Amino acid sequence: MGGxxxxxxxxxxxxxxxHFTDRITVDGRxxxxxxxxxxxxxxxxxxxxxxxxxxxxxxxxLEGALSMGIADPIQDDRSWRFTxxxxxxxxxxxxxxxxxxxxxxxxxxxxGVSVPAVVDEPSGKLVTNDYQQITLDLAxxxxxxxxxxxxxxxxxxxxxxxxxxxADVYEDVNNGVYRAGFATDQEEYEAxxxxxxxxxxxxxxxxERQRYLVGDTxxxxxxxxxxxxxxxxxxxHGHFKCNRWKLAENPVLWAYVRDLYxxxxxxDTVDFDHIKRHYHQVHTGINPTRIxxxxxxLSGWLTAHHxxxxxxxxxxxxxxxxxxxxxxxxQAQGRx
Length: 336
Hints:
34% of the residues lie in helices and 5% in strands.
């Protein structure tokens, strides 16, 4: 973690590449075969990268096959910790800090401790923290364990288009808000902020014509854009200074993200309380008072979006996921 939370905003931001890139596959070629009940997905509901995996797991109905541990949104300098659980330990892995699973995989690992992380339950070792690949593998390698009616989130016929959209969204939006928020000089900030809004403005005409980013069904591309947009007005607009306009001031994008939020598998995974407290209380380098803003008003998330008028089939030939499993519900303070 370097110098800890105070470092945010004091040095140029560069997202680390995932160090542990093993894949969990049908053939187990990296030593990790797909197997129900073997692995634990560790996430923070505050983190947009982890939230991708939470949404995918819900949509695909993998809750019974892949258990989930939820870290406290407030990190200390040892990174993600399990202080939300009884005795401050993950009830399955028995550890206090996610770093312990990293240490069991590789001692003296020099990088940061990130989520999402998939841990092998029998050995307690980290398997992967490759946030770009985890969700793609859930969609394509875990198919034997998908629920009946699970959507195809990464259809063969449009993978090239999905990959292109995701690459642009990653560079300018998913990562762009961080480059703006952690910029150390005016020029660096302005370039990143301009890139965020340029990309959002390029996406707007597409989403004005069609309900989803690629075709008429939800794909991995929508999941990746959603996890940034759902945090936009709550944290990126103010905390990261991406304030040319609020998402709620763009009628198309605001309707698009509300449509997804109100779709089972999306909004029922979002905890605005965790999101706001994490960004404002962890990034002490850019918010030294650790004060968490009272706003914005969340009631708009439940208002009519009228996106169904564009047609589309959210789950393709599939069906919505069932109810949120017991113990994974979002508490009242995190919901509109």
